[in-house]
């Protein structure tokens, strides 16, 4: 009843942006404390279009709040027709809003929302690539005579690269073009040299996923094998291959340096230690092929990760959900399938431990449990294809170089 009242008040409010901002903040709080399945089933379309109106016409704060609500809405409905509608209806307004103005918090919220709704509602790699390209253009636009660029802030770069990496974990890197990889790897390498620590770590996460996917070795092999017989093309192939080898060696040296950085003036010790530990993990992976294994408590249960892709997904969703992360992991079937997480208290329908929210979810004809598994299996199959080849990326081609 409370959410219905908030939404009704919001829809017919003529008091301006402050009332809408308060309503959006209240909706976010409600989604964080309870999954709101019953409310979403009845008011899904109304809530989505009110949020899209805020994105089109609202202040930066209102846009940020509305973006977050749309992401929460997608995570609540789970894979299926509604999530696909969210993506189709939202992608253009989000793309347009991300190009207008330079407010870091607004851009970060919009692109984080785009990552979430694509993760849940995208059914094919083309849709994911489209969203990733929108993100890429926001921090690394293609220059032209009619392009006016505004240098993105560290906050915007960090959020964008994190969102891009999050979607990359669902892709089959072997189907992406070598040109795309060359652009992304070279740009991410430059970010490792930036002054802002959060930017460096975001770039390191993206590169770890790229190496884990085996994409750099695929890129090297394609360039090296692209000689069609002509001397000119052969020279270009050799130059391209050597360039890739140089990129790889440079990244390894950058990661090694960051793992033992001494720290500069005013450097917070905790932040510096976090950076060192993170890049030590990246270095160990690049040199020896070992992924960091993590474990975190969710209530009485433990959620574990054993790959970079899982870790990046976990970190991104923890950041996005904030205080609602534990609640979602305990009750959201879609996220439980993403991480292979089964709370001990989640039993069959009728168990004394099952919550009312879970009962509604299981009974609903639009139930998450009826839609999530096929979607997740498809995404996980794409991300795991040839995964084991990834840890050889540092050494590929050295014998023949």
Question: Can you give a write-up of this model?
Answer:
It is a single chain. This protein has three domains: 168 residues; 142 residues, no CATH class; 63 residues, no CATH class. Strand 1 and strand 2 form a beta hairpin. A two-stranded antiparallel ribbon has the order 1-2. The protein is 67% helix and 2% strand. With 401 residues, the protein is an all-alpha fold. It is globular. The protein contains 18 helices and two strands.
Write the layout of secondary structure elements.
Elements: H1 2-11, H2 17-33, H3 37-57, H4 60-77, H5 81-99, H6 104-121, H7 125-139, H8 154-168, H9 178-191, H10 197-212, H11 215-224, H12 231-258, H13 269-288, E1 294-298, E2 301-305, H14 308-321, H15 325-331, H16 333-339, H17 356-363, H18 372-384
Antiparallel strand pairs: 1-2
Helix pairs in contact: 1-2, 1-3, 2-4, 3-4, 3-5, 4-5, 4-6, 5-6, 6-7, 6-8, 7-8, 8-10, 8-14, 9-10, 9-12, 10-13, 11-12, 12-13, 16-18
Low-confidence stretches: 231-236, 346-374, 383-401
Order of helices and strands: HHHHHHHHHHHHHEEHHHHH
Number of domains: 3
Helical residue percent? 55-70%
Strand tally is 2
Q: Which structural category do the helix and sheet elements fall into?
A: mainly alpha
């Amino acid at each position: 009843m409370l959410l219905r009242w908030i939404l009704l008040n919001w829809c017919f409010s003529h008091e301006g942006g402050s009332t809408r901002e308060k309503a959006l903040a209240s909706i976010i709080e409600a989604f964080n404390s309870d999954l709101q399945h019953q409310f979403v089933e009845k008011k899904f379309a109304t809530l989505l279009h009110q949020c899209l109106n805020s994105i089109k016409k609202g202040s930066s704060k209102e846009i940020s709040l509305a973006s977050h609500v749309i992401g929460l809405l997608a995570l609540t409905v789970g894979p299926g027709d509604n999530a696909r509608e969210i993506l189709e209806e939202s992608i253009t307004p989000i793309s347009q809003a991300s190009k207008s103005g330079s407010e870091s918090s607004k851009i970060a919220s919009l692109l984080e929302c785009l990552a979430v709704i694509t993760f849940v509602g995208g059914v094919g790699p083309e849709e994911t690539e489209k969203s990733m390209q929108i993100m890429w253009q926001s921090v690394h636009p293609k220059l032209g005579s009619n392009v006016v660029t505004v240098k993105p802030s560290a906050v915007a770069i960090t959020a964008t690269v994190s969102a891009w990496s999050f979607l990359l974990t669902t892709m089959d890197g072997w189907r992406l073009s070598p040109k795309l990889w060359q652009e992304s790897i070279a740009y991410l390498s430059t970010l490792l040299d930036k002054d802002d620590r959060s930017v460096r770590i975001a770039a390191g996460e993206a590169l770890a996923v790229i190496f884990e996917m085996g994409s750099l070795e695929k890129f090297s092999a394609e360039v090296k094998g692209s000689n069609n017989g002509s001397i000119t093309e052969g020279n270009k192939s050799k130059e391209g291959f050597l360039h890739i080898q140089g990129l790889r060696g440079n990244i390894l040296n950058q990661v090694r340096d960051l793992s033992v950085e001494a720290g500069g003036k005013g450097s917070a010790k905790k932040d510096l230690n976090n950076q060192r530990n993170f890049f030590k993990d990246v270095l160990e992976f690049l040199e020896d092929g070992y992924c960091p294994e993590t474990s975190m408590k969710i209530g009485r249960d433990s959620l574990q990760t054993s790959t970079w892709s899982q870790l990046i997904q976990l970190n991104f969703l923890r950041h996005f959900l904030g205080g609602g992360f534990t609640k979602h992991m305990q009750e959201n079937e879609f996220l439980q399938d993403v991480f292979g997480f089964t709370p001990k208290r989640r039993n069959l329908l009728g168990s004394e431990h099952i919550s009312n929210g879970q009962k509604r979810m299981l009974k609903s004809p639009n139930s998450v449990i009826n839609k999530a598994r096929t979607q997740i299996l498809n995404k996980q199959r794409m991300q795991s294809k040839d995964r084991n080849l990834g840890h050889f990326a540092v050494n590929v081609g050295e014998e023949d170089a």
